[in-house]
Amino acid sequence: MTKAMFFDLDGTLTDTHALHIATWLEVLRPYGLEVDMSLYREKLLGLSNEEAVRELLPHLGDGERSELLEAEAKSYRGRADQVGPILGLGALLKEGRRQEMGIVLVTNAPREDARRSLEALGLDEAFDPMIFAEEVGAEKPDPTPYRVALERLGFQAGETLAFEDSPKGVKSAAEAGIPVVGLVSTHAPNELREAGAEFVVGDFADPAVYERLGR
């Protein structure tokens, strides 16, 4: 029986990718960069904001980079109330609470961005603990965020289940020994399976999710 569920945020709890694309398009346009889904998936998805800026604009000095990151954060916060949950999320969380499972957030997103997204979803008190990659010294696909989550809960990896939408996230959980369900929101099913997903679903309403929880 599953004792805890781990959830990524962007693309897993909610499809925030369109909001991120709009935000990056706004703040990077002055630098001559037009952000679309292709560029977002190739260069931005799964990276911290600072890593993304270093990847796309390596010539920026520390001061200009900091200003750009502040502009990105402000722009995203203005859009955060537009997010909505992936189908079936509420019912799954309710079932997890009924079974007294641990319900944990494990994300590469900055704490402030995550807080605003969770508030918009009405989930600001749904997860405990919340593991932020920037605060544990390593980001997905490194397994450290998930290993920290396991340590805080005191569970064995095989007693838990992770939900991820990106190959980097899947790899992070899988390398920590955690079984992973892939959410097909931004990546193809085969990409998630190749990264280590046990199986893939389109949303949380898929009966396969509940079947897996009962093992």
UniProtKB/TrEMBL annotation:
Keywords: Carbohydrate metabolism, Hydrolase, Magnesium, Metal-binding. The keyword Magnesium applies. Belongs to the HAD-like hydrolase superfamily. CbbY/CbbZ/Gph/YieH family. One of its GO terms (molecular function) is metal ion binding. Its cofactor is Mg(2+). This is HAD-IA family hydrolase. Pfam families: HAD_2. It comes from the Bacteria. The keyword Iron does not apply. SUPFAM superfamilies: HAD-like (SSF56784).
